[in-house]
């Protein structure tokens, strides 16, 4: 549908991403969608051999270079519109936060009203509702104050502009424990007798909530440690990271390439189950911190350790394994000469999340002292060059004959090892 709209052109009066409506979300979103559609049309046309000017159609290398430059310019426009759409989306998060908080408070009120039938309304129900209002109001206020940075999501967005699984899990436990303490504060404020006040204060004893406190400490430590681990691995070129246009909910369960990861999924699922259990315990015993059983607490700790081990194991530095002369059907075998295409074989050339054309166009191959941009070769539905394991680039005339070194620089700025080849006249 998007491709058909791009062929037909924009509708009269439709937003195209260049409107002057202030923070109008439709302009950014529509502009990004149309830019993507236009890029897909152009890529598929070039893949089918259409749209080439007569001046370059006679030369395979010239046409390939021309197509690559055209696609690169179109991809840069898509990336620019994508960044604008991401900023617009972040600026609207505070409104969605307010709606979500309001819906959660109303749902809590309905649940408490239904469960109060027959049992009657209690002080604990009032304290729980007031705690929800206080916590929700604080979240809404903080979201409005930081509306330009993603509102309530700002603390859980990583440096790569994706939702951080470890931070989201830690934030969920922090909010839950804060809510549980506010419930106790409300009940303590409404307590009339000293015996009742002493019972509520004893509900905060470490012996009552040791399991929940331990889990809270571990998940918060994991969030801090993961940030440190990822940062050091990126600086040490052992992990490739590219920035996303905007955070998505799927980031909690997937890697940067959008593939589901076991470590993240099990951490989120087990933490959600443990939080649900703790919430039920709080509803049943609102006079003390949720006494999370040690068996369930240990399960959460094992899940956190698995998640941390997964962060240590992911990634790896790209590597060049071999470089050969690219040969087409009918060509004679021979050494690598200037003007020939070379095929670089290895692994890790395309970082996770860098499969888009604007990222692929940033890949560079250093041949001796000459930097060669990797050409984009479109095919139906994608690109045949570059790929994660194979790159094809021409050897320019500026390369001096003799023994030279080949090195790949990925879109994340990570350099591979150097591989020596012989170039003849």
Radius of gyration: 28 Å
Structural class: alpha+beta
Q: Could you tell me the strand content as a percent range?
A: 5-15%
SSE series? HHHHHHHHHHHEEEHEEEEEEE
The beta-strand count equals 10
Let me know the largest β-sheet.
5 strands, mixed
Low-pLDDT parts are 1-14
- The termini sit apart by 51 Å
Kindly report the average pLDDT value: 86
Describe the global form.
Answer: elongated
- Provide a count of the helices: 12
Widest beta sheet: strand line-up: 2-10-9-4-5
Q: Work out the helicity level.
A: 40-55%
Features:
3-stranded antiparallel beta sheet, single chain, 10 strands, 425 residues, 5-stranded mixed beta sheet, alpha+beta
Give a structural overview.
The longest helix has 32 residues, at 60-91. The radius of gyration is 28 Å and the shape is elongated. By secondary structure, the protein is an alpha+beta fold. The strands form three sheets. The chain has a five-stranded mixed beta sheet with strand order 2-10-9-4-5, with no helix packed on it. It has helices at 2-8, 25-47, 54-57, 60-91, 93-115, 123-145, 165-190, 194-202, 206-235, 262-284, 294-313, 357-360, and strands at residues 319-325, 336-337, 341-347, 364-367, 370-373, 377-379, 382-385, 390-394, 402-409, 419-424. The chain starts with a helix and ends with a strand.
Concise summary:
The chain has 425 residues and is of the alpha+beta class. It has helices spanning 2-8, 25-47, 54-57, 60-91, 93-115, 123-145, 165-190, 194-202, 206-235, 262-284, 294-313, 357-360, and strands spanning 319-325, 336-337, 341-347, 364-367, 370-373, 377-379, 382-385, 390-394, 402-409, 419-424.
